[in-house]
Design brief:
The protein is of the alpha+beta class. It has 18 helices and eleven strands. It folds into two domains: about 350 residues, no CATH class; about 170 residues, no CATH class. Strand 6, helix 13 and strand 7 form a beta-alpha-beta unit. Helix 1 crosses helix 3. The protein starts with a helix and ends with a helix.
Length: about 550
């Protein structure tokens, strides 16, 4: 039976994959992220998945001790993954709507008001530079978001470039990737700022502005975009929030009067008893315990905003060898129950990690033994085939560093699907594959299954009459090519997760199983009868 941790990691993975599927999903996520902007990206994903309407989340201890509020009986906590210890665990936070106060204490979140517009515009301009548009607060927020992205996106772009394999960004040149990344980042940060400041973002920004989101279709690319969006929007909102709270504080002070005859002792008692209330009096910033005060990429001690989406299957199922650093903000992923300990981490804050283990391994590296990095990949060595039981360790490991990129990239989906559908050398029938997919929805199980049913030979087929295609299996990738192997006209190396996805899409669209021969129509049957009678008389 799956543990709660496994279920939550799977939820995180599914949410990440669906969030960038279209502009509607992405803007829906951004609405939740706007109200929980102090949480890192992977926490925002889980809050969105479990309580998309959450506006202020904190653990029970913070509600009790700082705000004098108690969680309602029967309230369901929002499960988040905690990596602050030697092994992954779950922690729970609760939205303000799930709490109550015995002392009638109100949680006042900072709120943007039109009367604060000029002060906020001054803050934004002094922090992020001259605003291109500032005729009103909405245009000022959008301009500030663009400036903030211009100043900070290079810190995230280089990482994205390295991790774009198997995404729609892979075939684009560096300039186009930069343009797409920067534009979707600018519009996302602006959207979050508008939502948190109380303005109808959908009226100022259209879904057409978010069309580029579909290019971030792997966990690696979602991680980088999500971390950048979360971090830069936090920069902007922290400045706005600080200004608004100061203005609210000044207004409160101006309106407050004290009885002149109160003695000093009485005033001191009042001050001591009201400290906890005043912590949130001018606009509460929740989650102070779960996010470092400086989450920027150049923060001290190597802290970085790109928290990766951890592959729990490789990080909690067995004890890992010592690693120098690990990658930040990752969408969590699981296969096996957690046993053993993980190496010590810096905690659940936005730390700097330099390893990202995701669902579809970058360049197939997710299939390597834990602890290996690119400089220690297994060499290409000829070996025997694989058994039906999945003895894929006998397969060759293909070193992507030596990949021949002189040929055009083979990416024709119709041809690839026809090749996968036509090969007679699989160790399972088409119906068996369909049946397996029907009862195994986990992408990792499907990937492993597909890899294990392929033959370990150089295989060439003729499809669509005269089109030569072929493939060769490796432990980490499937090598595909057009033409004969000795005279290939194009080729590609696909991670097994991508190949499993091709099977899944064909099954989903009803294109995988052989179509039964259509029954002849009435007219066709009459024609056949007439032909038979004629032939008989002749």
């Amino acid at each position: 039976m799956a543990t709660k941790l496994q279920l939550i990691t799977e939820l995180s993975e599914r949410t990440a994959q669906s969030a960038t599927r279209n502009p509607v999903n992405w803007t829906s996520f951004l609405k939740t992220a706007a109200w929980n902007y102090k949480y890192p990206f992977q926490d925002q994903l889980l809050i969105y998945a479990q309580r998309p309407d959450a506006t202020a989340c904190a653990p029970i201890e913070l509600w009790n001790q700082k705000f004098g509020r108690w969680v309602n009986r029967g309230a369901k906590g929002i499960a988040l993954i905690d990596d602050s210890g030697s092994r992954l665990t779950l922690r729970h936070v609760f939205d303000v709507s799930d709490t109550n106060s015995r002392y009638n204490r109100h949680v006042a979140l900072w709120a943007m008001q039109d009367r604060y517009a000029e002060s906020v515009k001054e803050t934004l301009e002094s922090t992020f530079g001259e605003l291109e548009e500032k005729k009103d607060i909405v245009t000022a927020l959008i301009s500030a978001a663009r400036n903030a992205v211009d100043d900070n996106f290079p810190d995230y772009l280089s990482d994205l470039m390295y991790f774009r394999e198997n995404s729609f960004l892979e075939e684009l040149d560096d300039l186009n990737v930069e343009v797409i990344f920067k534009e979707i980042l600018k519009i996302s940060v602006a959207y979050i700022a508008l939502v948190r400041c109380g303005y109808p973002a959908d009226e100022y920004l259209s879904f057409e502005d978010f069309q580029g989101i579909v290019n971030f279709n792997t966990l690696d690319t979602v991680s980088r975009l999500g971390a950048a969006t979360s971090d830069i929007s936090e920069m902007v909102l922290k400045e706005i929030g600080a200004t608004v709270k100061e203005l609210q504080k000044a207004e409160k002070k101006q309106n407050r009067t004290f009885a002149k005859n109160q003695d000093v002792h009485h005033n001191e008692n009042v001050k001591q008893n009201s400290n906890s209330e005043r912590d949130g009096e001018y606009g509460t910033d929740l989650h102070a315990e779960g996010r470092l005060s400086d989450t920027r990429p150049d923060a001290a001690e190597g802290r970085n905003a790109h928290r990766q989406i951890w592959d729990v299957a490789q990080n909690i199922s067995e004890k890992l060898p010592e690693r120098n650093v690990r990658k930040p903000d990752a969408v969590w992923q699981t296969e096996q129950p957690p046993v053993g300990d993980r190496p010590d981490s810096e905690g659940a804050h936005r730390t700097d990690h330099n390893e990202a283990l995701t669902e579809q391994s970058r360049a197939g590296q997710g299939d390597r033994p834990d602890g290996l990095d690119r400089t220690h990949e297994q060499p290409t060595v000829l070996s025997g085939g694989i058994g039906a039981g999945g003895a894929d360790l006998q397969l060759t490991w293909y070193d992507r560093e030596t990949e021949d990129k002189s040929l055009p990239f083979f990416h024709s989906t119709p041809l690839i699907n026809e090749l996968l559908r036509s090969t007679p050398h699989l160790k399972a029938t088409k119906q068996e594959i369909v049946d397996f997919y029907a009862v195994h929805e986990d992408s990792n199980e499907r990937t492993e299954y597909i890899k294990n049913i392929f033959n370990n030979d150089y295989t060439e087929l003729i499809i669509n009459g005269n089109h030569h295609v072929g493939y060769k299996t490796y432990q980490n990738v499937l090598h595909l090519w057009e033409g004969s192997y000795a005279a290939r006209t194009s080729q590609s190396y696909y991670d097994w997760g991508v190949i499993a996805g091709h099977f899944g899409s064909m099954i989903l669209l009803g294109e995988f199983l052989d179509e039964p021969l259509a029954l002849p129509s009435v007219q066709q049957q009459i024609t056949l009868i007439e032909q038979t009678v004629t032939n008989h008389h002749n």
